[in-house]
Amino acid sequence: MRRIEWVAALLVLAALLAYEFVPLQMTIWDGEYKLLVHLDCLGTSPVSATFETFSRREQAENVILSKRPPESGWSSAVADPYDPVEVPVPISGRSSPLGRDLARGHFSYLLVVATFADGHRVSKIVDIPDDRKSREVTVTLP
Question: 3-state secondary structure string, the chain?
């Protein structure tokens, strides 16, 4: 009788492990988190600042080269440069049936465009940290 109980217990354990580790079922999710951005200026302070997140660095560089302001969409923010601003960062991933992360990704680059009183603009691309380590970044502009 003991042998049957051990075999049954091992079968139940194997079934649970297969449920978790064999990729027959998973949850695909997406959303956003708020990145707190502090703006430090070495000299004259800007009159306004815009912030936009990108998945690829080339996208942010194209915005700088085109000399157009960042879009005002769901992954951007416009703020008073003296106060910290919360910028939405898109995030997505896949999870196992028991909640283990199988894949996880977020937009990796933040474009900051500061406009000064005389009309000139300064742009800077900053790496966005992993949200599990930090949800805050400081950007220093010349």
Answer: CHHHHHHHHHHHHHHHHHHHHCCCCCEEEEEEEEEEEEEEECCCCCCEEEEEEECCHHHHHHHHHHCCCCCCCCCEEEECCCCCEEEEEEEEEEECCCCCEEEEEECCEEEEEEECCCCCEEEEEEECCCCCCCCEEEEEEC
